[in-house]
Amino acid sequence: MILLGALNDQNLNPWGLTPLILKLVITGIIMYLVIFKTPLKHWVVRYRFWLVSLLTITAIIWQFMLVFNISAPIGFDVGTIHQSLVNHKVASGYLSLNPNNFFLFYFQHTILNLFNLSPSWINVNLLNLVCLDLSLGLNAVSIYVLNHRALLPLLILQDILMLLLVQVIVPYSDVMVLPFVSLMILGFVIAEKGKNTFLKYYGVVVCAIGALSTYLMKPSSIIFILAVLLWMLFNFSAVAMTRKKVMNYVIAAGLFGIIFFGGVSSFKHFEYHDKLVNVTKDQGEPATHFMAMGVSDRGGWNAEQVAKTQAMKTNKERSDYSQKIIQQRFKEYGIIGFIQFFINKNYANTSDGTFGWYHGDEPYIVKPAKTKLQSIFYEQGTHFHDYQFLAQIFWIMNILLLGLGFAMVDKYTQIFRLAIMGGLLFLLLFEGGRSRYLIQFLPLMLMLNALTFAAAKEKLKQLKMVFSSQ
User: Residue 237 carries which DSSP code?
Assistant: First the structure.
């Protein structure tokens, strides 16, 4: 269903493409023929990691060019948080209504102050860039530990992502949470693969710190931990328990719980006793508010509901109002109507390969495109649809790999699949309606694709043989 939605997305419409796409296609075909149909293939295979390293360096240079050439003011929560960095009075009002972004604000504020940087758009975007690339680096370490043969496919996928992910200039929790998600996964991998007790407990501590930071930055991104717990619950009876194993599990759970729950409690105390920003208690929207928006219109942000909710004085009033909306939607849609609604919402959540760039939130950059890079990534630019088309192709390729690699089944691939399914389910039930929310799950998708790449490649060979024999 997700693949059909991606194939049907308007980004794939050839109308409006420029000759640049044809030039890129021809260049790609020539490179393929030169590399894989000549003796040069053996040289490329031999030095493949050096070539991919060169591609990675090129991608990093490209990212810096983007930050310095196309950074500009952006609206919605991104813009308000940027204003909050400049004016702390804005922060007090905004974070009282949106306490979920308190950690994000303090993360940016602390890093900028640590390096004595002004809160300019370029500086916060440089921080955003570091967060993305740090996440990709941690992903590589995790995959190397799990299966070193999967490292090369991961690096190639991540390099392409670095070239296409324009959200490097959108300094928000979607990207800034990624290093913490990747750290959480790395901690789990160390705990699983550690060859001695110390390494296993060290992994638990790293995983707990990553999970804590992930939860404080963007709670929905902690879905990986829930998938791990669910997997353990499903397979608990299959594990031969000994007294030593039980003790190890108890100690690991205790370590994780102390760090995670103790950290959450400590940060909440700090949040309401901080002297820099005066946050008013009980002004934020309840979880039911986001569920109510999730079942309204297209299931995305709803200005009317936000205005009414924020105008109410107590949490109970806001919760009662949101519950009333949810009940009304159930009565209006019915079972069949809700199924159709969720099908349409899933399409809106997952079809757009640009991850919601100029779609679903506003305002984005409105200034005219004056440079070549701006002509690619600004909506008014000559090559903007070329960018949409290429990003959509990359997204379809990732979805295809996820499907073709289904034959690869082990503990780790199943946990990643559970986490991705859980993330998609979360977006169906809560505020969604645009693919920007998928960015937080990119480490899961990238690593699953890398781990199942060999199986996907084998499946492609089988399909090729089937079609060639007909």
Answer: G
- Residues 6+ positions from 331 with CB-CB distance below 8 Å: none
Q: What is the pLDDT of residues 64-80, one digit of tens each?
A: 999 999 999 998 889 99
Task: Count Cβ atoms below 10 Å from residue 226 Cβ, excluding itself.
Answer: 14
How many beta carbons lie within 10 A of that of residue 25, not counting itself?
A: 10
Task: Compute and round to an integer the Cα radius of gyration of the chain.
Answer: 23
Q: Which two tokens stand for residue 50?
A: 């050096």
Residue 198 CA, chain-centre distance (Å), reads: 31
The helix/strand/coil state of 452 is coil
Chain centroid to Cα 347, Å, comes to 17
Report pLDDT digits (tens) over 317-351. 788 788 888 888 888 888 888 888 888 888 889 99
Establish how many alpha carbons lie within 13 A of residue 208's alpha carbon, considering only the half-sphere containing its beta carbon. Answer: 19
DSSP code at position 282 = T
End-to-end Cα separation, the chain, in angstroms = 27
Mean pLDDT of the region 362-384: 89
Q: Are residues 453 and 405 in contact, defined by beta-carbon separation less than 8 angstroms? A: yes
Q: Which of 94, 132, 102, 422 is nearest to 264 (CA)?
A: 102
